Amino acid sequence: MTSRDKILEAIRRNKPQVANSLPEAINFPDPALPPLQLFRERSLQNGCALIEVAPNDWQALIDNRYPDCTNILSLIPEVEGNCGRETYGDKTSLAQLDLLLIKADWAVADSGGIWISDQRLPTRVLPFIVRHLLVWVHPDNIVTRLSDLYAQLEPAGQSFGILIAGPSKTADIEQSLVIGAHGPLSMTIAMPAIR
Amino acid sequence: MKSHAQLARDFLADENRADWHNETIYTFRQKRDTTVASIPEWELMRQAASDIKDHVLANLDQYLEQFEANATANGVQVHWAADALEHNRIVHQILQENRISRVVKSKSMLTEECKLNEYLEARDIEVVDTDLGERIIQLKKEMPSHLIAPAVHLKREEVSKLFHQHLHTEKGNADPTYLTRAARAHLREKFLEAEAGITGVNFGVAESGGVVIVTNEGNADLGVNLAKVQIHCMGIEKIIPRLEDLGIFLRLITPGAAGQRTAIYNAHYHKPRTGTSMHIILVDNGRTEQLGRADFRNSLKCIRCAACLNTCPVYRRSGGHSYHATIPGPIGAILMPGKDLEAYGDLPFASTLCGACSDVCPVKIDIHQQLYRWRQIILEKQHRLSPKKLLLKSSLPFFRRASSLETAGKFMRQLLRLIPRQSFLHQKSIWGLHRDLPDAPKQSFAAWYQQNKAHDKQR
Amino acid sequence: MHVGLFIPCYVNHLYPQTAIAALELLENQGIQVSYPADQTCCGQVHANAGMEKDALSVYAHFVKVFENFDCIVSPSGSCTAQVQHQYAALPQTPAVQKVRERTMDLSTFLQNIIKTPRIEALFPHKVALHTGCHGLRSLGLDPRPLLANVEGLELISLQFPDECCGFGGTYAITKPELSAKMGRDKLADCLDKGAEYICSTDQSCLMHLEGLIKRQKLPLKVIHLAELLTAKP
Ligand code: SF4
After folding, report:
1. Which residues in chain A have their CB less than 8 angstroms from residue B151's CB?
2. Which residue segments constitute the domains of chain C, with CATH numbers given?
3. What is the model's pTM?
4. Residues C42/C79, Cβ–Cβ less than 8 Å
5. Which of A24, A60, A113, C41 is 20 to 30 A distant from B345 in Cα terms?
6. What stretches of B159-264 adopt beta strand conformation (E)?
7. What is the ipTM of this complex?
8. Ordered structural domains, chain A, with CATH
């Protein structure tokens, strides 16, 4: 008998004979703040920076905000960047990336996190390996809570998706919070400037 | 091997350090309390999560088959391991087939349980733990002392010394940011060199055939996404039915550790990257046996959030290593006896049964009741008549007859009065070592009642 | 209503004044109270040590003694929880069910059955409240509203209000170092906050804490809730 069969057989023998059914979906109470406001508050709490950008301000923004970033990879049309496809397959070039600009598919207000799926990522390691991460979030794409995000996702055909809620962090040395563990040292959320 | 009682005594011998440990971990607990209080749907989610897990355990075979079918359709290779050894063999075989000798691994209690590192290292494979806390204890050659913060028992000066020795950091520099950056640079090299990335799994989703990995540091995702082979080691109990269930579980798993509302990274892996391979190893290693124990099966609902550790007054004051087990704390004390009753029979007694653990568990495991039930089994199996058992056994008849108990009590009170305060009983007995014995009143309440009240009542 | 007073065995022998206070408090409510002389113990010590099977005969004895009362009241959250919850191990005869349902902690009885109890007490001191763990978590006791009736009492908030004191029955004996450490920490919390007294719903916690106080000669005293609610100048 294979281990697979052995395990399944043992489960059938040992599992409880009566099963409860799955619970009804939870009727969540409304949060205290509207989604946009909640998202801003929570992403700040997570250690993100929040900025507003008008369409023509991108270049100035990058020059001012990231003066020491030389290798910039941009996956948003407004910014050109200076690293392209050649970076993707090469670990050394990837490791030298300073800044990634990317658009989020969704943002979750309650956790202050953003969702990026495979389709936006030419290679999956990008948002983890860069030193600084800038994520473009459109207010229309902010859902209230995590369950609202999953309601948007199709179970079949998932490939890779990541929820990111801030710069990487650790508190493994005497519980002192250090921002910037193995992933990015900073994360900035950019949203359209309100006119 | 030393028992929890002995190890706890050793830990407490340095009372300042024990206080530091207690306070550090109490801070986690306080943060958890604050966060949970700010989530109005907490109890609703807890109940739902508990129900979902119960449902999964009762249908585990079907969900595993569904998971396997969907993962396979996604292009993932699914393996089954009956025990730790088979798990280790499978990992080794995958590495061999791909001629891999350098591996990075993110935090996984399962691979600790299987002692994967030792197995691979004995076969000339370099395994580097990449979670900062895990790396610290790997360099120090110790076991994790906490589910989420494996090096929580170490002070920054100790980490500084260790890093100076292994990573050549400045001598005496114990600044956490400095040390973390040094580890970052050191591990970056390892990430870039590694040919395989191994991770644990927090959730396996049956309907989509993917695994979800929850971290803060970014190490799991760096490891997996830079390597040509990714291996996810998953206990069979980690299954949840639907993607949408994550909307609850991902919100329940983080507050327990240190009050985080969400982890920084919740990564969903369903398909391998082009040109690479992805493996999921489903591991039993005693889980089906635990499933068969009606009184203990719901311990399999655990999502390893560490809330029960942080709230436990015993854990905080005795340290994770005092449990001499892979899984420490209250949850360890109910899981480990199922693996080896002989070796871990002391753990269910490492508790005052205060019940704080059950109160905070996000999937509603009745931890303290299970501690109680393990005690019954352990005493039953204990052939040798320990002094405690002997005393309790011989006292039983007294507790069935009020008159005998009254006489015994009278005798005890006299004893307490007659024996000098400086005697062994008062000073050196296990009670007297730390505490004065109570003063003995002349009369019991029963006697007082008989004298003062019983007559009125009869009239 | 006829109330059966259940006095835990160690209270009977070592702390009669607590039992007397509980009796007085109940009688002050103008109800009929009896102390059945043939009672012994709830069986908790044996059961928690892992000898539930042996303790079943003690449980059965308890049920026999108390089955005919309308309410069974005890000045102990821990023993009450034992009867309410762990007596599930007995065959659930109507008598057992009745006894489990009707056994309650003194504070619950005053708050939920009497509702507006008559309490005439004067206690001009700073008091920290320690609700025993079983009372706190298994029974959900919160006797603070009762303390509000005590004249002069100043209730102190602790830094670690729900932390176990470390008694834990045989735990106090089998793990003396940890048990004593937890107790000392509880007392340090009380002293830090300026308490003069530590009041508990369980005399067992107080027995352990008082032992530590006396050994270390700390400026702190213990008092059971029943005594506090009957305190006279
Ligand atoms: S038993 Fe519950 S509280 Fe403890 S680690 Fe597991 S899920 Fe968390």
Report:
1. 172-173
2. 2-114 (3.40.50), 126-228 (3.40.50)
3. 0.94
4. yes
5. C41
6. 196-200, 203-205, 210-215, 229-235, 239-240
7. 0.97
8. 33-192 (3.40.50.10420)
